[in-house]
Structures are given as C-alpha cells and as structure tokens.
Amino acid sequence: MSTRRRRTTAVLTAAATLIGAAAVTAMAGPASAAPPDGRGPTELRVATYNLSLNRNAPGQLVADLSTGTNAQAKTVAEIIQHANPDIVLLNEFDFVEGGVAADLFRENYLEVPQGTADAVEYPYAFVAPSNTGIASGFDLNNNGATVTTPLAPGYGDDAFGFGAFPGQFGMAVLSKYPIVEEDVRTFQRFLWKDMPGALLPDDPNTAAPADWYSPAELAVFRLSSKSHWDIPVEVGGNILHVLASHPTPPTFDSVEDRNGLRNHDEIRFWADYVQPGPGSDYIYDDAGARGGLAPGESFVILGDQNADPLDGDSVAAAIDQLLRHPRITDPLPTSAGAVEAAALQGGANLLHEGDPKYDTADFNDNPAPGNLRADYVLPSRDLRVTDAAVFWPVAADPLSALTGNFPFPSSDHRLVWVDLRVHP
C-alpha cells in the first residue's frame, strides 16, 4: 500500500471474494469528490481514449511520467483536460503494479494545467493486470518457435495478448466518482473455448475444423487480449457499470484470421454479458462467479474495439453485435476534423463505405485501412444521451496541434466522449 497526496492507493490482492488470482489496484479519493445527493439526475461525461502511452520496455512509462515534462504525456493530458470527462478509459496505458503509473499521470500531468487547458482531478482510478505480454508457453502463431523470453523477437506473438513484456498496452480507468471496489469483476482468465459457439480459428492445411490451436493450447488460451472489466461506479445514487475492454486488432495474422475471429468474440463477450437470461450463464469472472449483468442495471461499454461497422479488416458485423443490441444506444459521436482529414489524406479513405464524420482513428491511408471508427462509448438505453463528439479539431482550430498529423504528437486515436443523464 502506498499513499500520494490527497489520495490513498489500496491494493486489492488475490482474494477469492473478488478476483481470484488477478491482482487489482484501486485508488480512492477524498469525500469532496462524492457525487450529488441523488435528489435529481446527474449530468455525466464519459469518454474513451487510446492515448498510446505504451512504452517499449518495463519501467519506461514510470520514468516518463515521473518528470512532468514528457511531451506526449503533456499533450494527451491536455486533450483529456479540454474534454474534461467525469469517467475515462485509457487504452494502451502500460500496467504497472501498485497503480504507480496511474498515480504519476494524474499527479504530474492531469493535475497540472497543460497548454490552454485547466487542471483536472480524478480521485478514483482502477488498474488491473493485462494479458498482454504474458507468456503462454506455446507457439501460438504456429511458426515453429515458442518464444518465452520478454522483449525477444516473436515474444508478443506467443503471449496471451500481444506485448513485448507483461502489461504493455494495458488499461486504466479514471473517475471523479467513487468506484465500488468490492463489486468489481475482472475476466482476464476467461477461456476462449468456454464461449458457446466461439469462432475458433482453423488451420487451412488440415482437414480438421477449428484446429489452429491445439487442445493443450485451447485449455489455457484466454479470450481477452487485454482483459474485460466490470467496474461499478456510484453516480448520483445510481450504480453505473463501466464495462472496459480493448479487443485485439483484427490484423497481423494470415488466412486463418485468428485475430479477426478473436476480435469478434471479444466484442461478443459484452453483447452476451449485458443481455439478461441464460445467454450469459456461461460467463465466469476471475473469482469464479458466473453470469452476466443483472437485469435493469445501467452500464456503458468503453474502449477501442478495433472494429468499424463498414470498413477495415474486422469480421463482418463484429461491432454490430453492440451497435444493434436491444439494450444499447449508439450515440454516433462525430467530428468535423475527421471529415477534413479523410478528404485531405485520400487513399483508402476514398473507397470507404462509412461516413468519415464518425471516424475516431487516423490510420495509414496508402495502403489500407485508412481512417476508421474504432473507439466507442455505448450506454445502456435507460441512460439519456444529451451530447456526443470525437475530439478531432479541424486544421484551422488551434487545438488541432494536439492531434496533429503523422507522426502524431499524441496518438493515432482520438478521444471520444458522450454526455449522459443518470437518474437516481
């Protein structure tokens, strides 16, 4: 346990009542950050941001965040400050034991005014281990070599989730509202084979079906490339379940499409989880508790889902599992900057079926995939959406310097936010 100013960091260990073998860190803050008294609705801004704060080796992120002078960290912090969400999921934020990186990012960057933005405080945060960079002990890409040494060439392809070392490309959730620590559920160790009807990849060189992974590999292969988290947050007398994830990109594979199929089923996990009834009975969390979200619970699904409804390499209709779900609202956040960028960059963007105003990521345009909608904030239908946008300013806006062009000063993804009205 460690303490930082006005903030205590409580480390939740492998208690069977909470998360089994997965260690979780939750940071709680002062009473002054408590939500309204519940007598009326709460206006809430929720965001997701793949801010690309991953680093190439263990310890680098802590070193960069310790100084308060890292240019990229200052830029992504200023973007968060301008958007000023009440709850934000950070994708590609390396996991560091004890929540050290999350503490440093808040204290040295978010709580310090950056550029033209005001400081913002997040008294509560949640971090937990990621499957990225955890050695599987198997040759998962079937190239004839099993790599188990972190940072070695090919290590990431044989890890449970792609990463050069444990925790690379992890996640963190920051909140101005209290996190109900004892009710957090994590699904880091849920096995892909235990999803009914899982789209397991097939080795095209054999006659057997769905045999890219051996029985021994499937016995340990985890569905989540990072993790899936259900984080209850107390907002104005209500509990809002923040459902956070970051499915694998549906690329970097071959004809077997193992990453595309995994991306589809990582997205499907939440579609099943929020649907009341027996369809979610197969789900178990890291503590062994079974089942999905209870009927009537409010939730918001956050994350870089790495899937566009119409363009890109994802399995057909992968993201539609959420966008067309009967319990989910798609707020359709937009930006003028994305439209401008698609027109200026051309290339693959000119062949897209989707409207560029919905794009959230600035990817390589020549060759494909071009700019895509990859990042989502998807609330349950009981929450009223009052506004939504993608932080992608047009070039004439001074804030466009924060997003920029390749090589980006911040990230190739854009922060996406949705304003919600939460009733007690």
From TrEMBL:
GO terms for molecular function: endonuclease activity; exonuclease activity. Residues 48-413 form the Endonuclease/exonuclease/phosphatase domain. Keywords: Endonuclease, Exonuclease, Hydrolase, Nuclease, Signal. Residues 1-33 form the signal peptide. The keyword Hydrolase applies. The keyword Nuclease applies. It holds the Pfam family Exo_endo_phos. It comes from the Bacteria. Coiled coil: none annotated. This is Endonuclease/exonuclease/phosphatase family protein.
